[in-house]
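Standup, Tuesday
Yesterday: got the pipeline producing structure tokens again.
Today: sanity-check two examples.
Blockers: none.

Example 1:
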Amino acid sequence: MDVTNLLLPLAINNKIEIAMKKNKKLFLTICLVISATSFLFSQTLNDQALVLQKCFDIGQLQAYYPQYANNSYQQLHVLQFPVTFPANLGVSKFGQPILFLTRAQVFASNPDAFFSFMTFSITGNTASVVFDFNYNRLSVSPSSVNVTVNLEKISNSWSITNLTLNNQ
């Protein structure tokens, strides 16, 4: 009986075990990367929602928000251009969800007012946002306010550190 024939299956089994251990490590590494990415992405979505909500809640803008004849506020709209947002951010104003609309939808629905975000950047614990709030669009003198806002995140709460409003 040849000893090599007996050792060959053992060598093959050993190689298979080594390959399985390497694949297991690779699989675990991939799972770790995916879960870390998911966590960071969810944090980013949460921060986007919080920063966006801060923009809608700027006190100086409240006077420009459109109202019905009974003085209740109309639903706010966001033009998804040039910056776009996921529609599932869960932001609201006056107890109503914010409507995120394409350019075609804004043209078709012709809202009295809408937000248009030029820049929306979150880096670590700081955020920088520039947007126009177009209002009185259905009147003879439509207007807009250009807003630049900088925010800082301290203890999971976003605060406005600098705010500039320019009527146009």
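Example 2:
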Amino acid sequence: MNKMQHRNLLLVIVSLVIVFSMLSSQEIAIAFQMPGTPTPAPLVGIIEELEIRNLERMLDGDDLDEITRKALEEKLSMARSIINDRSITAANWPAHAESILPPAQQYIEKPFPEGVFEGGEGFIPSSEGFIHNRWQKALETGFIQVFAGFSAKNPLQGVLFIAETSMDRTDTKIQTVYPGEQDGGLSIIEEDDGILILESQNMLYCFDVLQRQFVCVVN
């Protein structure tokens, strides 16, 4: 082994000593992991930096021949390029990730269905009444629903349950209105400009939603 080889071997040994002095016991165990197991990113960076220092020390020597010096310079340039590329990739990753990740899905609330519908959606408990159908509409201040049916305590007593719900749907107030006659349960036939047309067994009713009162009865 010539003087040059002795010097290079010594530099390698010194580099290894420096590496292990900077590592914890866990990192040293990782350094001796089984072949093929990926090296943690922080440890890779340390090893690359030390390799660059080692190459720089070797190039400081005056006894290098032209071929060896050129080979070391090429290796040093490659090592610096790898570290530089990794730094650029890390810096650009947020923008890169944003470009490849699908856009976040935005919740689009479905329009509130308006008109006359069968059933009561389970809104009114059966202990209060049985619902035939309902009319509903969206308002500037929230939503209104009128449920038509009969009282749970008296099947001959028609009843309307008027539910007003806030725009954020966190608050609902329910008002109960009864017709004067006991002619069975009520059903909504249609709505015309805020007036509900309802029927019972033998009668027709007009109900003003805004005024919350029956405004006509037809036998």
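Quick observation on example 2: The radius of gyration is 42 Å. The helical segments are 3-22, 25-31, 41-60, 66-100.
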